[in-house]
Amino acid sequence: MPRLQNKTALVTGGARGIGAAIARAFRDEGADVILTDIDGANGQAMADEMGAIFVRLDVSTEADWDAVAERFPAIDVLVNNAGITGFEGPFDGAPPAHDPENASLADWRAVHAVNNDGTFLGCRYAIRAMRAKGVGSIINISSRSGLVGIPMAAAYAASKAAIRNHTKSVALYCAGQGLAIRCNSIHPAAIMTPMWEPMLGDGLDRPDREAAMVADTPLRRFGDAAEVAALAVMLASDEVAYMTGAELTLDGGILAGSAATPGG
Ligand SMILES: NC(=O)c1ccc[n+]([C@@H]2O[C@H](COP(=O)([O-])OP(=O)(O)OC[C@H]3O[C@@H](n4cnc5c(N)ncnc54)[C@H](O)[C@@H]3O)[C@@H](O)[C@H]2O)c1
């Protein structure tokens, strides 16, 4: 029997990358999927391909969430996946600085608007949309960057750390309300998606850049979006009904040790 039969799931940022992989895996497991994104063209095409409903949703915009709540007052699963690093571009010249000394307040806020406001608004919608049944699963896509400092992507790292913590507040709040609404965070690292394109480029040195980026990863490769989706399916299913407030890393082993580990 499919693991998500009779469940309705909403996925944000589903037009490509990890969100698209999660939406596809949910469909494969029998869920009805509402695939959302700010990218209307690719979002619609992706939804059509997998038999999902597409809705344009900018996660940082409260009015967009209000419209979603009106159209879909009840859901079983929400994946807060949409996120940005601040390096998406295109830029006039060099990408903006995102280190703690030189980042602009506008660039800092832009990252937080999508990653944090989006996750807050999504969780708020989901709690309300799951309250009648009293059961549901909220899955927040944080990052390895939410668990360690990233000097050159400070806003991204801080925003992902906030997602980790908000996940635990939501989990405890729902449990305290007597609701079986679970909330957990996934912390991927180096998953090969279009998010990496600006950093990898399409020059002849691309293979070298790829290898350099995973040189410190114990499994020495990028992860696949389908591997994140497999974890999301488990969290969305009833198989782990006792898991809430948890943070699950999916990072090829990076966080298992430290660069200073004796003996390499
Ligand atoms: N790829 C990785 O290595 C990696 C690692 C850790 C965490 N993550 C996280 O996983 C999530 C997905 O990453 P990805 O690699 O698939 O990224 P991606 O850039 O390939 O896709 C992101 C999607 O989100 C959409 N989006 C951007 N802003 C939006 C907004 N305001 N409202 C709605 N949709 C919006 C984009 O249109 C795009 O379809 C992000 O939260 C990211 O931070 C990714």
TrEMBL record:
<dbReference type="InterPro" id="IPR036291">
    <property type="entry name" value="NAD(P)-bd_dom_sf"/>
</dbReference>
<dbReference type="Pfam" id="PF13561">
    <property type="entry name" value="adh_short_C2"/>
</dbReference>
<keyword id="KW-0560">Oxidoreductase</keyword>
<comment type="similarity">
    <text>Belongs to the short-chain dehydrogenases/reductases (SDR) family.</text>
</comment>
<protein>
    <submittedName>
        <fullName>SDR family oxidoreductase</fullName>
    </submittedName>
</protein>
<dbReference type="GO" id="GO:0016491">
    <property type="term" value="F:oxidoreductase activity"/>
</dbReference>
<dbReference type="InterPro" id="IPR002347">
    <property type="entry name" value="SDR_fam"/>
</dbReference>
